[in-house]
């Protein structure tokens, strides 16, 4: 005996779909397949169909019918047998019918087909009674199993696996609904992402492909709501069609579509059938799947099924009816689809059918599929041939399996204690298996563990593919262990966050209680009231102007009505804080003692007579008037001459507070005028900050580097300084933040600058400029001996040591190392000398002579602690060389200074100076020490570091067209001076004896090249005109210039000599280079007499000229051509001379 589906395959016409006789079509949203109709209705269908004359028309009608069965095991034979018994058909009639059928089997095809029908029905009737009880038992077993599975997953299983009471029979008998087909060789394959499906657990998938959506609806309409779900290997892929078996994992699940939801229905309900662009929204379908078992994908169907063979005769018609129409009584129980009927061989023998014909028909029906109606949709959908996967056999008493299951249950318990979601799922699973022992179904336990875990997709797929119970449990246990670790980590994070929140809540609660208790006891008033009282106390001590007092009262009243939590509260509080910290009416007493001021200025600085005299004049006026108005003094000079330190000395001499801020590179006007209070973090400008810090109205404010102030998109700070530095306006200086006038008229402003050219003219006009010239060698010697050397000696720890720098060494240091006009570089070298001497002394004495640390004076206690950090290598007293201590001791003890023996003496002379400061920086003072060639003259320049320099000027000529080439990194002003000098020489070429006649243009046939050595140093300024003209005349007249003669001064186009600056530094450079005669502009005589010390002018003859003819007469005095110039280039009066 074989199942009825074999007979159906052998006898049913191929064209008839296996789902064509389904009675009762489920709706598209049905949660489960609709059961078969009652037996009386089936009989009526059968009779109506059998009475039709044409088989082909019936086949077409059945093929288009929406009614279908789920499987090839279609006919419930018990129903048909019981119906025939009720109509009075006994065994005798059956025997006669069988005899007639055998007799007529060979007479006509029509009779043969009818006999086949009768035999099949009788065979089914005879077997019905034997298997009726067995079917009921199986139905009950499947009902319990389905209920168990649904309970484990937290939802009810589909109706196709459940048993319910028949509501239409009225007799209370159980009717088993159609079960899930055990064999389903061909399915619609649906790829899924993220994680695989496991039998017994629902999964909702969204389908976007129109063809696949149509196929799903066709399956539901034909009562075949079954698909195969397979996991995609590429997690980023999003497709509803499988084009290659390599896209998916080979093992998936056979799933039932329990319900579907279309987006088109939702859009119609929400009246949103179009998207933003106006086009219809693409339809999507959400299908809820319920997996039943594991399947393996064998092959991908790429074409539709072959054409069915032609069916002729009533025999095939009868066979189709017998295979498709159930006949039974209305109240008969719907039995299982697994009923067995006589085998194909027995049917062939009973009917007398030809063996070859039967085999051919059976072979033809092997390819018949339950979903043949989907073939026309290929290749837009994916149909696959699949096979069921069976769990490998195992022993129930396997100790390894039981041990793994026990461990899984233990892990489940641990996870359930950490995560409530797991607790609910485990409780549901436990209830579903309460009737049976969980150890009897280890495979379900493994599937449940994998289904509820959030493990890696590859690990989950491995559980799905595993057919060995032990292996599946092992993999499920691994996934659960990882889930346990994640649960523990989540629990720890949750506990930490909760503890922090609880701690803050507890602190807040206790603080509120504490405030309430203190308020009840009167121990502490409200914070805002206390703040208001503090502001009132501070304001009472200040002499605020009337306008400022009014603003203060308004802001204080606003503060009293604001809540402390309001953002405006902090803004108002900060403003009141600044308003009460400005020293309204508070000023420091001033010292107008001239003798005291003179002593202080002389102690701090050597020289600077002009600056000191101006400060003493300021004090004298203040002493006579009883008060000192604010002044604006600008100290201009080269770097390192002590401009900033002069400002500190002035403040100390006057007894005023000192505040310094630099404006070098400043581009934001808010640094001077402050920010508006509307901005977050707003604060007043530097002047108001200075008043707050010094707490007095009459400080000395030093504005450093005023010549380097910048300008940006935030305003021009130099313009903001105008109001602050103008004595007529700073009586009511208005800061943007304060928004009340502040009196700055009593502030003494001192500005410093290196040059005056970059200071804006309106700002410079408000200042009183004091030139701070560079120091000459003699001044540097005194500064080094009286100030720099003692300070460096004390700072190096050599205060009581016999160490001396000889004057010759200092003089050598100044001449060959530190030629700058300032003393900053000189201080660095003297500090270096004392540091080298300190290192030499310590190295000679050895570190063993260092004293032990002692407690500092006024120290109450000594705290010592050990640190885990290892110290650097250091030899302590008593330690072995190179041995490091185990720990570092941090202590408050101080080490006593090293006592140096009296026998140590250090002398720094000009001979060993190189050992302390290295080789000299400058090697010689001038380029030409002997008679230079024709075309070379000596000029004087002022360097950027504030020092002077002797600069030789070299000129040569070559055949050309009268051009002039300039090299030596010369600036635009020097280039113009060279052009003017050459033009004057060409205009007076005949008078100078360069040409033989005024019409001679020999000079225009020569190109002239002028070069100033030391090309790495930029040269600029109007001070080399006379030296350049002298070099041109020397070249063109072929006359040498005395190397001991140097000159400086600018010339005009008609030969006038113009004054220049920086004479003190230039004369100092000439003195250092051994120049005997200086030719300088006559207009600079007063400057030289007043500012240049006699020690610098000693040994130099000064020739003051105001015309270039006087220059060339003086430079070339004693030569033959000079005698001719007395006639051709006479001078009105000889130049004035001075010899020192």
UniProtKB/TrEMBL annotation:
Record keywords, A-Z: ATP-binding, DNA-binding, Hydrolase, Mitochondrion, Nucleotide-binding, Protease, Serine protease, Transit peptide
Top-level taxon of the source organism: Eukaryota
Give a Gene Ontology cellular component term annotated to this protein. Answer: mitochondrial matrix
- The main location class comes to mitochondrion
The GO annotation for biological process reads:
cellular response to oxidative stress; chaperone-mediated protein complex assembly; mitochondrion organization; oxidation-dependent protein catabolic process; protein quality control for misfolded or incompletely synthesized proteins
Output the Gene Ontology terms for molecular function: ATP binding; ATP hydrolysis activity; ATP-dependent peptidase activity; sequence-specific DNA binding; serine-type endopeptidase activity; single-stranded DNA binding
Question: According to its UniProt record, which residues of this chain constitute the active site?
Answer: 1023, 1066
Q: Where is this region: Disordered?
A: 62-176, 333-363, 849-890
Enumerate the residues binding ATP: 637-644
Which EC number(s) are documented for this chain? Answer: 3.4.21.53
Instruction: Tell me the compartments it is located in.
Output: Mitochondrion matrix
HAMAP family recorded for this chain?
lonm_euk (MF_03120)
* UniProt-recorded name of the protein: Lon protease homolog, mitochondrial
């Amino acid at each position: 005996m074989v199942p009825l589906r074999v007979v159906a395959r052998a006898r049913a016409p191929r064209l008839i779909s296996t789902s064509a006789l389904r009675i009762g079509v489920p709706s598209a949203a049905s949660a489960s397949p609709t059961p078969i109709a009652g037996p009386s209705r089936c009989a009526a269908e059968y009779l109506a169909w059998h009475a039709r004359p044409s088989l082909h028309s019936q086949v077409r009608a059945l093929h288009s019918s929406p009614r279908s069965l789920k499987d090839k095991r279609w006919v419930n034979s018990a129903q048909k047998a019981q119906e025939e018994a009720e109509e009075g058909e006994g065994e005798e009639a059956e025997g006669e019918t069988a005899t007639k059928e055998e007799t007529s089997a060979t007479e006509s095809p029509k009779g043969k087909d009818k006999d086949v029908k009768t035999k099949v029905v009788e065979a089914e009737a005879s077997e019905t009674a034997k298997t009726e009880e067995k079917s009921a038992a199986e139905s009950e077993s499947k009902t319990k199993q389905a209920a168990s599975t649904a309970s484990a997953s937290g939802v009810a299983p589909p109706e196709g696996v459940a048993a319910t009471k028949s509501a239409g029979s009225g007799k209370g008998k159980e009717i088993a609904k159609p079960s899930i087909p055990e064999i389903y060789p061909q399915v619609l394959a649906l790829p899924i992402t993220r994680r695989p499906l496991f039998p017994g657990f629902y999964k909702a998938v969204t389908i976007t492909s129109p063809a696949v959506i149509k196929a799903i609806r066709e399956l539901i309409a034909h009562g075949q709501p079954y698909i195969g779900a397979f996991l995609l290997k590429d997690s980023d892929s999003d497709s509803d069609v499988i084009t290659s078996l390599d896209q998916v994992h080979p093992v998936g699940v056979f799933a039932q579509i329990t319900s579907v939801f279309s987006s088109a229905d939702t859009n119609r309900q929400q009246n949103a059938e179009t998207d933003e662009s106006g086009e219809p929204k693409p339809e999507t379908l959400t299908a809820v799947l319920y997996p039943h078992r594991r399947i393996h994908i064998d092959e991908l169907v790429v074409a539709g099924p072959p054409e069915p063979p032609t069916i002729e005769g009533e025999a095939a018609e009868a066979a189709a009816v017998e295979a498709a129409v159930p006949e039974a009584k209305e109240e008969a129980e719907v039995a299982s689809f697994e009923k067995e009927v006589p085998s194909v061989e027995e049917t062939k023998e009973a009917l007398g059918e030809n063996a070859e014909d039967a085999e051919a028909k059976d072979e033809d029906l092997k390819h018949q599929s339950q979903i043949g109606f989907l073939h026309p949709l290929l290749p837009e959908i994916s149909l696959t041939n699949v096979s069921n996967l069976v769990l490998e056999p195992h022993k129930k008493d396997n100790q390894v399996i039981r041990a793994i299951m026990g461990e899984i249950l233990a892990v489940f318990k641990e996870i359930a204690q950490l995560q409530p979601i797991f607790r609910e799922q485990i409780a549901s699973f436990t209830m579903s298996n309460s009737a049976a022992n969980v150890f009897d179904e280890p495979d379900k336990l493994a599937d449940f563990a994998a289904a509820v875990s959030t493990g890696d997709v590859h690990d989950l797929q491995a559980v799905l593919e595993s057919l060995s119970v032990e292996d599946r449990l092992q993999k499920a246990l691994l996934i659960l262990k990882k889930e346990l670790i994640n649960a523990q980590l989540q629990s720890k994070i949750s506990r930490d966050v909760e503890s922090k929140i609880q701690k803050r809540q507890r602190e807040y609660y206790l603080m509120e209680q504490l405030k309430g208790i203190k308020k009840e006891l009167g121990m502490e008033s409200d914070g805002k009231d206390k703040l208001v009282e503090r502001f009132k106390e501070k304001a009472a001590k200040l002499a605020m102007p009337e306008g400022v007092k009014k603003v203060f009262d308004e802001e204080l009243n606003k503060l009293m009505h604001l809540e402390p939590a309001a953002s405006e509260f902090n803004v108002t509080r900060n403003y009141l804080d600044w308003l009460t910290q400005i020293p309204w009416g508070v000023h420091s007493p001033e010292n107008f003692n001239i003798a005291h001021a003179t002593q202080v200025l002389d102690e701090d600085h050597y020289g600077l007579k002009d600056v000191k005299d101006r400060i003493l004049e300021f004090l004298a006026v203040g002493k006579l008037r009883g008060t000192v108005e604010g002044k604006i003094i600008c100290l201009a000079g080269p770097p390192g001459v002590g401009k900033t330190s002069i400002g500190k000395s002035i403040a100390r001499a006057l007894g005023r507070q000192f505040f310094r801020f630099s404006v070098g590179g400043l581009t934001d006007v808010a640094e001077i005028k402050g920010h508006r209070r509307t901005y977050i973090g707003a604060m007043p400008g530097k002047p108001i900050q200075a008043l707050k810090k010094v707490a007095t109205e009459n400080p000395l404010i030093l504005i450093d580097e005023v010549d380097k102030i910048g300008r940006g998109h935030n305003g021009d700070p130099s313009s903001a300084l105008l109001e602050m530095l103008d004595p007529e306006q700073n009586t009511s200086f208005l800061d943007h933040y304060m928004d009340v006038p502040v009196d700055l008229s009593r502030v003494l402003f001192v500005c410093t600058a290196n040059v005056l050219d970059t200071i804006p003219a309106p700002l410079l006009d408000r200042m009183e400029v004091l030139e701070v010239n560079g120091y000459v060698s003699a001044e540097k010697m005194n500064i080094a001996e009286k100030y720099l050397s003692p300070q460096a000696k004390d700072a190096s720890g050599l205060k009581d040591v016999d160490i001396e720098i000889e004057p010759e060494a200092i003089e050598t240091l100044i001449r060959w190392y530190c030629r700058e006009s300032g003393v900053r570089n000189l201080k660095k070298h003297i500090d270096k000398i004392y540091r080298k001497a300190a290192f030499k002394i310590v190295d000679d004495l050895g570190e063993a002579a260092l004293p032990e640390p002692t407690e500092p004076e006024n120290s109450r206690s000594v705290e010592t602690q050990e640190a885990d950090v290892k110290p650097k290598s250091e030899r302590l007293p008593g330690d072995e060389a190179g041995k490091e201590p185990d720990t570092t001791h941090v202590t408050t003890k101080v080490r006593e200074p090293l006592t140096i023996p009296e026998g140590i003496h250090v002398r720094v002379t000009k001979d060993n100076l190189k050992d302390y400061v290295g080789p000299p920086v400058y090697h010689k003072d001038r380029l030409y020490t002997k008679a230079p060639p024709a075309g070379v003259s000596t000029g004087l320049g002022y360097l950027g570091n504030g020092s002077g320099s002797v600069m030789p000027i070299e000129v040569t000529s070559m055949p050309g067209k009268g051009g002039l080439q300039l090299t030596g990194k010369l600036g635009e002003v020097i280039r113009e001076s060279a052009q003017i000098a050459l033009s004057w020489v060409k205009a007076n070429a005949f008078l100078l004896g360069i040409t033989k006649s005024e019409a001679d243009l020999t000079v225009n046939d020569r190109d002239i090249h002028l070069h100033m050595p030391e090309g790495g140093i930029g040269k600029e300024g109007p001070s080399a005109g006379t030296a350049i003209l002298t070099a041109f005349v020397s070249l063109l007249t072929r006359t040498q210039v005395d190397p001991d003669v140097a000159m400086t001064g600018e010339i005009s186009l008609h030969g006038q000599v113009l004054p220049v600056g920086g004479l003190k530094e230039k004369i100092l450079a000439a003195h250092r280079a051994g120049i005997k005669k200086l030719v300088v502009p006559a207009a600079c005589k007063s400057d030289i007499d007043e500012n240049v010390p006699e020690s610098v002018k000693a040994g130099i003859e000064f020739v003051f000229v105001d015309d270039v003819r006087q220059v060339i007469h003086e430079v070339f005095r004693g030569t033959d051509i000079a005698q001719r110039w007395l006639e051709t280039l006479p001078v009105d009066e000889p130049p004035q001379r001075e010899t020192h």
